[in-house]
Amino acid sequence: MPCRSTSIWDSIDVVTLQARVNAMLLALADLDSGAKAVSVSYAQGEGSRSVTYAAADSNRLRGTIREMQASIAARTGVGCARRTPLTPYF
């Protein structure tokens, strides 16, 4: 297999890996559109609460998605450059 390389994602089966890629793509879309809150606070009665979530780095998320997609492509043969058969002409 000419396009096969080892990856940290090799221990995960292709179906699970594709499901994770799909979930990460949805998360990236939410992150890019601003649909996910990073900090939420509210006041009720005499008290108030605040919760802060860690913001994801969209560039790291994109890189991880590309790595996972490359691992899937390498294992399924999709997107791999293949050599064509040699056809002699006389």
SSE sequence, one letter per element: HEEH
* Main beta-sheet annotation: 2 strands, antiparallel
Pairing-aware structural class of the strands and helices? alpha+beta
C-alpha Rg, in Å? 21 Å
From the spread of the alpha carbons, the general shape counts as rod-shaped
Features:
2 strands, 2 helices, 90 residues, alpha+beta, two-stranded antiparallel sheet
What does this structure look like?
This protein is of the alpha+beta class. The protein has one domain (9-76). The chain has 2 helices and 2 strands, in the order αββα. A hairpin with a 2-residue loop joins strand 1 (39-44) and strand 2 (47-52). Helix 1 (14-33) packs antiparallel against helix 2 (58-76). The mean pLDDT is 80.
In short:
The chain has 90 residues and is an alpha+beta fold.
List the helices and strands and how they pair.
Layout: H1 14-33, E1 39-44, E2 47-52, H2 58-76
Antiparallel strand pairs: 1-2
